[in-house]
Amino acid sequence: MTNPANEIQHEFEAAAQARANHNEGQARVCARRAAGIAIRDYLTRKGTRLPSRSAHDLLNFIKEETLLPPDLKLAADHLTLRVTEEFKLPINADLIAESKALCNWLLKN
After folding, report:
1. What is the pTM of this model?
2. What is the dotted CATH code of the domain comprising 4-108?
3. Are the CB atoms for 59 and 32 separated by under 8 Å?
4. What is the pLDDT of residues 38-97, one digit of tens each?
5. Buried/exposed 78-96: b ≥16 CB within 10 Å, e otherwise
6. Closest by alpha carbon to 102, among 59, 61, 48?
7. N or C: which end of the chain has fewer CB within 10 A?
8. Digit-coded pLDDT (tens) for 21-47
9. Burial (Cβ within 10 Å: 0-12, 13-18, ≥19) of residue 25
């Protein structure tokens, strides 16, 4: 069985590499995938049936989690935002940092 923490770490390493290569779009994808892995692990440990395998769907689902702190609900919301036609986020946010905070909380709870 794979270790979710290792998978998440791998995604964040890929996100950092993408950002270093000025590929913010790929960095966002990796941050989203990391969050999806953490959410799957969290819900599985809670015995909650997974609504989907999609990281995007899981991020939308976790926003309804009553135990999730408001700042992390906002992070999950940011991770599901659509980019503009210029492939930029409509807000100023560091999705890698927000995803890390979300993942850390999910792995500890």
Report:
1. 0.94
2. 1.20.120.330
3. yes
4. 999 999 999 999 999 999 999 999 999 999 999 999 999 999 998 888 878 888 999 999
5. bbeeeeeeeeebeeebebb
6. 59
7. N
8. 999 999 999 999 999 999 999 999 999
9. exposed
